[in-house]
Design brief:
- The chain is an alpha/beta fold and 187 residues long.
- The protein has a single domain, classed as NagB/RpiA/CoA transferase-like (Rossmann fold, 3-Layer(aba) Sandwich).
- 24% of the residues lie in helices and 21% in strands.
- It has five helices and ten strands, in the order H-H-H-E-H-E-E-E-E-E-H-E-E-E-E.
- It has a seven-stranded mixed beta sheet with strand order 3-2-1-4-7-9-10.
- The two termini are 27 Å apart.
């Protein structure tokens, strides 16, 4: 499943991915949960993920705190840090494609309102399949976190049902370039 999805994403022409990213971002910007969030966690996009630069710009303009994950590979965990710029000189060089602000200021988990999470695949029941590290699943399961979890992806990344592991953390909302799905979970 991961290999197949990766191949499908790599085959998507850049202009198609850009147009779909714009549509998906417009759908996020229209969410009440995004508009009312004071602190929103985004991600520094890599190829194959929805380009969320418009969400950074909108959130900054709105005076929101904008956070991105800083991944600690050896500890298998990630923490939210403040992001004030996506300029190359303000980000670390990529490590497995992942970048974060050079000057990392951590942000308290209990003060995040909305987490926008990428994945390799999503299903129509609100589950996500990450790239294999389980970073988001562990992060989203943090007891201090009282957030709305919103998955963001291309319509091509949505399947009917994913094989669910025990660590899986279900989403509240899934946004793609075609749909906004909302899930009722009993956490």
């Amino acid at each position: 499943m991961r290999k197949k999805m990766q191949a499908a994403l790599e085959a998507m022409p850049p202009d198609v991915a850009a147009a779909k990213s714009r549509r998906a971002c417009q759908a996020v910007l229209a969410l009440e949960e995004f508009r009312s969030a004071r602190a929103v966690m985004l991600y520094v996009p890599i190829p194959g993920e929805v380009d969320v630069v418009p969400l950074f710009q909108a959130a900054w303009q709105d005076g929101k705190a904008v956070l991105v994950p800083q991944v600690f590979w050896l500890k298998w965990r990630m923490i939210p840090v403040i992001c004030r710029s996506l300029a190359d000189e303000d980000l670390t060089p990529p490590h497995f494609g992942i970048r974060h602000p050079r000057h990392s200021q951590p942000w308290p988990l209990e003060e995040i309102d909305l987490v926008i999470a990428p994945a390799l695949a999503f299903d129509r029941r609100g589950h996500r399949l990450g790239r294999g590290g389980g970073f988001y699943d562990r992060f989203l399961a943090s007891p201090q976190l009282q957030v709305i979890d919103c998955g963001l992806g291309f319509a091509e990344q949505v399947v009917d049902e994913l094989p669910i592991g025990g660590e899986d953390h279900p989403l509240d909302i899934l946004v793609t370039d075609q749909d906004v799905l909302r899930f009722e979970h009993h956490h």
